[in-house]
């Protein structure tokens, strides 16, 4: 069972590396935000797997804090960048929003 957790953690780390390309490339702020959310979700799962393998219950608390920070980040992003009636075009790309 230990090997499955290690393999799952490694796959999640690869997932984070692939998502880094989306954060760096864009093309929109929403794409970057979704990739950052994927980082947070992957980090939470990795911490929970490590807590299961190592028996460290404090890692569960750290994972919960990451999950809460992730939710606050999304709410902040949406409240700052959401425009009612926006068609989803990127404002930097010269869209007529």
Automatic annotation (TrEMBL):
Pfam families: MrpF_PhaF
Record's keyword terms, sorted: Cell membrane, Membrane, Transmembrane, Transmembrane helix, Transport
Any one Gene Ontology molecular-function term assigned to this protein's record: sodium:proton antiporter activity
Ranges annotated as spanning the membrane: 6-24, 36-53, 59-83
Primary residence: membrane
Subcellular location: Cell membrane
Membrane disposition: Multi-pass membrane protein
Superkingdom of origin: Bacteria
GO cellular component: plasma membrane
Assigned protein family: Belongs to the CPA3 antiporters (TC 2.A.63) subunit F family.
Protein's recorded name: Multiple resistance and pH regulation protein F
Annotated organism of origin: Thioalkalivibrio denitrificans
Higher taxonomy: Bacteria, Pseudomonadati, Pseudomonadota, Gammaproteobacteria, Chromatiales
């Amino acid at each position: 069972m230990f090997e499955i957790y290690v393999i799952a953690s490694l796959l999640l780390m690869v997932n984070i590396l692939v998502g880094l390309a989306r954060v760096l490339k864009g093309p929109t702020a929403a794409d970057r935000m979704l990739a950052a959310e994927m980082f947070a979700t992957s980090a939470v799962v990795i911490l929970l797997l490590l807590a299961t393998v190592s028996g460290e219950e404090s890692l569960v608390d750290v994972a919960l804090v990451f999950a809460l920070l992730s939710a606050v980040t999304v709410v902040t992003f949406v409240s700052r960048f959401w425009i009612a009636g926006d068609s989803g075009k990127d404002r930097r790309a010269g869209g007529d929003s």
